[in-house]
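Ticket #4471: structure output looks truncated?

Reporter: J.K.
Steps to reproduce: submitted the chain below (248 residues) through the standard prediction queue, then opened the result file.
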Amino acid sequence: MNLRCIVIDDEPLALRQMGVYVSRVPYLELVESFDSAVEARSWLQQGGAVDLIFVDINMPELSGVDFVRGLENPPMIIFTTAYSEYAIEGFKLDAVDYLLKPFSFEAFSRAAGKAHSIAELLSLRDNAAIPEAEAVSEQSAERECISIRADHKTSLVRYSNIVYLESAGEYIRLHLADGSKLVTLFRLKNMESALPSERFVRVHRSFIVNLEHVTGYTKGRVFLTSDEYAPIGENYKESFASIVEKLG
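Returned output as attached by the reporter:
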């Protein structure tokens, strides 16, 4: 499955580099490049159709975040930014991923791969090839795991290997301790019910974290690894603080 995409960045060098990266990924087709979100918005309003948009966040006239907010039916979005604090805004808009500048082709390829996996899953669902994924908890003395249908197979994933879960619309990304990710069609509310509540806590409408992997937290973030964190939603701050206090 090929993904039609556009790239938006006000920095000429970054725009050219993104074009080179896109050309190296066989399932990506670069339709247009824009140095202005205003121009990209106009192009889309005139009938431009894409599956994926790579867009810089910090741009003059119209920021990447405001650009995406203004789209009626946004396609998949991957934000690029030189400022990690903007990642939370991307999470709120259900972005597939965000790339922190300067990023390597490997990081770009991983982000594009997420979008490709999501597109394939949604295509299978729309063609009635698979139902919404089923997650079944299985516990034993030797193993505690959950059964996840992803990548055309069912995988048994240990609870201890799940760092956090991230929801984006009708699918969930499981971020695992070895750095890999699983994408499955499932609703976060249902997944929350399937996971043991004493180990997994919802901290945001789009995030569930494994308490075993929490390394620290502030008022607005839960830190999970040296470079990964999840936002804490306003409605979850009090309950999360209460849970952490009991653990302490």
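Triage note (M.O.): checked the attachment and the full token line is present. DSSP finds seven helices and 16 strands in the chain.
Status: closed, working as intended.
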